[in-house]
Amino acid sequence: MNIIFLGKPGAGKGTQAKKIADYYRIPHISTGEMFRTAYQEKTPLGVEAHDNYWGAGKLVPDDTTVKLVKERLAKDDCRNGFILDGFPRTVQQAEDLDKIVSIDHTLYIDAPDKICIKRIAGRRNCPTCHKDYNIHFNPPKNDMQCDVCAVALVQRKDDTETIVRQRLLVYEQQTAPLVRHYVKNIVRIVDNGKKTIDALFAEIITALGK
Ligand code: AP5
Ligand code: MG
Questions:
Q1: Which of 76, 88, 90, 182 is most buried, judged by most C-beta within 10 A?
Q2: Which numbered atom of ligand 1 lies nearest the CA of 16?
């Protein structure tokens, strides 16, 4: 099953994509994660993408991103399907993807800005074991420390209020038009901010089927 995932920053793409990948036993491919890892490893691409683009809430250029995804999709583990989280993000990326693979489902979590901003503001991560927390919805037991490693939790570099607003703007201008591009196979999940992660996951699985 080849799935792509659309939704604003903070809509819950990463959270749901991990669960979907486990459920269907397909790889979870997040372009945002790929850029963050490349930056941590200080590769030239990683530093360039951070310093000039994602660190400021701007999209990394299409040609760089498409090349990365093309290489990843060519790997053996994608033969039985994949879930792409955060790609495509522009009409150009969608057109390039159409030339490489066919997409079975386009998942789209439709959530209001206010909810997304609150979720992002609360998001924290353990720098050692990478366990995810949210100070509003899934706080650690001890003040801002990982329950497992007892080290201080960190916030993503692009999760400051100014950059989040910039990311939401970029989403409206460049990514929201993709809802029309994928109109034929879109699965729209409405998130009013009151549904739990598990309730949304159940809705997604029902829509996608076994
Ligand atoms: P990327 O990493 O893709 O970030 P994003 O799209 O901005 O989305 P987020 O990861 O912030 O949010 P999410 O929807 O995954 O939410 P999450 O599940 O964490 O991209 C980062 C940057 O990389 C981009 O800005 C761009 O510069 C670059 N980039 C990436 N892809 C690119 C591309 N294709 N082209 C060009 N550039 C690209 O949830 C958020 C929080 O809410 C979590 O704490 C979670 O636990 C909580 N939560 C989720 N659902 C619920 C719920 N139902 N109830 C309560 N809490 C919830
Ligand atoms: Mg994410």
A1: 88
A2: 18
